[in-house]
Amino acid sequence: MDTSFLNDRQIRPTEYRKWADAVRRFEHRDKDRAKVEELTQSIRKRGLREPIILGVSDRHPDVYVADGHHRAVALLQLGIASFPFHWYWIRAFGVHIEHEPFPHHLLSR
Q: What's this model's pTM, rounded to 2 decimal places?
């Protein structure tokens, strides 16, 4: 997935209103700041080892980071062009990791 999609319109953070809010929070909490620094060093040396998990709502067709906010911030800070990911639909009847192609059309809004 192209890292440029990690923005406030296309792939949003779930736990924060905007990506800038996540960055601010991570900068001001020692534990989060240390985690981002550790990930930044690790990604620089070995690349992103654990994929970011994206959730896609079928109710409001939007895409967000379900797991991997620290990894996403580290990628953005490093200027990495793309990242590995897994994704799932959030549907009324359940949630599971998809093996179908990602619905990229949802990012073109």
A: 0.91
Is 3-108 a CATH 3.90.1530.30 domain?
Answer: yes
Residue with tokens 């200027």: 79
pLDDT at 106 over 90: no
3-state per-residue secondary structure call for 3-59: HHHCCCCCEEECCCCCHHHHHHHHHHCHHHHHHHHHHHHHHHHHCCCCCEEEEEECC
- Coil, strand or helix at 100: coil
What local confidence, expressed as pLDDT, does residue 109 receive? 59
Cβ neighbours for 11, distance < 8 A, ≥ 6 positions apart: 1, 5, 54, 63, 64, 65, 107
